[in-house]
Design goal:
Blueprint lengths: L2 H16 L15 E2 H11 L4 H12 L11 E3 L11 H4 L12 E2 L8 H11 L4 H24 L13 H4 L8 H4 L16 H4 L8 H16 L6 H5 L4 E2 L1 H21 L4 H18 E2 L4 E2 L2 E2 L4 E2 L9 H4 L5 H16 L27 H13 L3 H18 L4 E2 L3 H6 L3 E2 L5 H12 L2
The chain binds alpha-D-glucopyranose.
Amino acid sequence: MNPQTELLERAKSVLQKNLRNGFTIPRDKLYPFQWNWDSGFVSIGFANYDIDAAINEINSLLSGQWENGMIPHIIFHSETENTYFPNWDFWDTTVNAGASQKPKTSGISQPPVLGFVLENLLQKHPDNPKVIDFVKYAFPKIVQYHNFWYQYRDAKKEGLVFIYHPWESGRDNSPIWDDALNLIDLKNADLPKYTRQDTKISDAKERPTTRQYDEYVYLLELGKRHQYDGKGIAEESEFLIQDSLINAVLIRSNEALINIGNRFGFDTKKVEEWQQQSIRMFNEKLWNEDLATYTGYDLRQEKAFPYWEIGGLTALFANIPNAHQAKKMKAYLNNLIQNNFLIVPSFDVNHPLYDSKRYWRGPIWPQMNWMIYHGLKQYQFENEATAVKDNFLELVQKFGFHEYFEAQRHLVETTNGGYGGDNFSWTASSVIDLILNP
Ligand code: GLC
């Protein structure tokens, strides 16, 4: 068997292993439930060879949608698993009258990938009646989900939505959150007692620190106090960020909804209004010429982040940068390649806060490479797109289907550069989709 065919077969068996009753877990033990954006990427992978599984995956996510439109970041389909903290009891979403109680869920969301996932399924199966029916069914639910973001997470009606928890960003312990998290007064926070499970399963050196976990629990409690959608969140939270990735993904998914709407003659006026304002503000407020990227904006401290970080690159995927901006973003990647890095590390490799092993503070992440690959292709940056894809496939070939990977070439060649959990679902689905859609 040629190596790519073999990799493809192994990827499929990872998904098969993680498949439960109508949904896929990111990885057993470490993440034993359904995660929002993980499932989006898994659905895209499945759509290449098992459209029923692709549809079920999204359907299972939608089963946890709240009345306010939110699609939560975790859906706890099973209430017997006990290897994860925080579980449904700790979230206690009964504080919000419109929260889903069956299935139980968390109380925050994640990058809104579902719009572009739906479009991806349709592009792969443009004439399949099952897919068409599903797209028609899911479309209004995803519009309602975007409405949640614009209604509850855009206090000043700027067109840029905020997050109040690092878990919402999908990049839990990125250094970009440090400043905001430092505002939290943990000494007087009176946190409930809790026990972490992740460090029993994964190497603690590759996971967030104890202090960071306390901060995560603090913000969870803050959200709970405000029924997870109350106005008080924007008034009270120390952590209040207009994140580059969340907004870029929202814009990419708005675009997808507009395209789907045009095909089926759905009303997309509201989405088009959101979209115009969001793109304009994203460019006005988040672009940083010196760093050659887009950065997040801290609403509490009223300042833009001073760091280069992976989230900014997803603007390419959302078609936001003009030619000049895109070129600068590409030059940054070329620089990394010349300096013997595999691309794309999740944080500025020259910054003192760069940590090549620890989660979102340096390693390469599969689903990020998937989005950046498509972003670079859109701008016809073929060489860089190929590098993003080939580097990722090389890492999986060498180390297996890990959660994240080493970016420094000399360490990749001399040590074990596969980090976090193994047999990871979005690693598998990204492999499948990148191999089958060159
Ligand atoms: C971690 C990641 C997040 C992901 C989750 C499940 O929390 O930071 O992005 O969704 O794991 O894989």
